Write the structure tokens for this entry.
Amino acid sequence: MPIYEYKCSACGHQFEELQKFSDAPLVECPVCHKPALKKQITEAGFVLKGTGWYQTDFKNEGSKPSSSGSHTAGCSCKACSANSKN
């Protein structure tokens, strides 16, 4: 469940709230009890950087599959046929 940040435009109170996607946005401030809450736009809590997040990424050159990929001996595709002639 995502954590949303809210700020009251009446009293300035800020807080975070754990809510489901399907939950309605909060409206009433828990401090001043006025219907003045606004949902804030915040950045993500984590960022996926670098390689290694996809199946096609490899840690080093030595762990890459061969040019024939997952094909087996006797495969009749063009790539395997070209490799077997070399």
